Description:
By secondary structure, the chain is mostly helical. The chain has helices spanning 28-39, 43-53, 56-66, 76-88, 121-126, 129-145, 148-163, 172-200, 203-215, 224-236, 240-250, 258-269, 272-278, 293-310, 314-323, 329-338; strands at residues 68-69, 97-100, 107-110, 116-120. 55% of the residues lie in helices and 4% in strands.
Amino acid sequence: MTDSSHESVPSRHRKRFPDISSRAYEHPADRSALVALRKLSGFDTVFKALSGLLPERSLRLLFLSDSVRVSDAQFAHLNDMLRDACYILDLKKVPPMYVNQDPQPNAMCIGLDEPIIVVTTGLVELLDEEEMRAVVGHEVGHALSGHAVYRTILLFLTNLALKVAWIPLGNVAIMAIVTALREWFRKSELSADRAGLLVGQDLRASMRGLMKIAGGNHLHEMNVDAFLAQADEYEKGGDLRDSVLKILNVLPRTHPFTTVRAAELKKWSETRDFQRIMDGHYPKRDEDKDTSVTDSFRESASHYADTVRTSKDPLMKLVGDIAGGAGDLGGRLRDKFTGAAGGNAGGGAGKGGAPDPDATDGSEGTWRRPDPEEGPGAGS
């Protein structure tokens, strides 16, 4: 474990958040997905079993023996960033950090008893100082939120599922838990992105970092505003078939798509909640024990209701319309899928109530195979 003291202040003037609770930056979907994960049948049993069986000591020895540990003597600039991040988020014990030789840009925070932060050489070589500072803050945010435990279990179960895939039905239960873990982890990335912004306090740097993870080190060929426009096009573009394809594409992933992450972070940076944190008004850790679970559920429910109401995605707009009593599901599905226009939304009935004999229930779409299953990485 590295030196736990914070002997230096941040390298440039940035605000510090003493005793900040992770609740201050956690995305509502992160907390609700974690609650759903814990309620999944069999998860408690698996969690308790793996907590005692996972070779954490072996994991630590592996990084110690085959990676470079960040310190004052090695990757000193990363060590300064790590201490800065822990100082700003008031993480009392600075976790050990390693640089691992891997051309794939990635970072992770793992460990059961104590978190370990690992960054790849691909990421170190890709990002500039301010972009890297946001990534280090992102991983420190994972540590403060206690995400490392679940990330470690996800790594183990993903590998286990591959090994038992040949057994008939052998990996069905495992994959159910892996799928739930991935759903939670995608949401936890949105929380950690917020922590990275609180540490770096440079929105453009956070945006650039996500853009580079998507498109590589050709910053002169890219534009943040155009990148964010992609997210808007992705969200509102297409029809219901595209909405379903989006779901299928994201299911194998541990991380949300980078354009979506950038748009979510920018949206949060413009909220009153973010400004209140920057002004020094935020939940404190000593208040965590008094936090109401009911209030957390209510906040999550409110978030999802707002998401459905404001989403530009065709499927979410349809759900919002139906929830508001705006029409018949079958008719709307038919119109969306066939491109039918105008007023036959009531199951094919015209103004006089006579059904259209040529009305169809839908049209067969062209389905694209989702992205191959990736490992738990793909960019910080």
